[in-house]
Amino acid sequence: MRLSGSIIDSLLGATLQFSGFCTVRNKVVSKPGPTVKKISGLSILDNNAVNFVSIFLTTVLTAVAFAYIF
């Protein structure tokens, strides 16, 4: 189940978490701004929300899998 949790976290982070490059600071940032060029993702969830949703979905999937198996 660790693999599925990691995949869920990666997919959520890549699609729903904003990632951009600040041309002034020369750093990858997590919030849009006037000097930020978008790399990927939408600005829907921050990192904490991605982690929470990932944990929640992994827990639900694990419970369903174990209920089905046992």
TrEMBL record:
Where would you say this protein principally sits, based on its record?
A: membrane
GO cellular component labels: membrane
Looking at the keywords, is Magnesium present? no
Q: How does it sit in the membrane?
A: Multi-pass membrane protein
- Any transmembrane segments, and where? 50-69
User: Where is the protein localized?
Assistant: Membrane
User: What keywords are annotated for this sequence in UniProt?
Assistant: Membrane, Transmembrane, Transmembrane helix
**Stored InterPro entries:** DUF92_TMEM19
Give the superkingdom in one word: Eukaryota
Record-stated family: Belongs to the TMEM19 family.
PANTHER family membership:
PROTEIN PGR, TRANSMEMBRANE PROTEIN 19
Entry protein name: Uncharacterized protein
Q: Which organism is it from?
A: Trapa incisa
What does UniProt list as this organism's lineage? Eukaryota, Viridiplantae, Streptophyta, Embryophyta, Tracheophyta
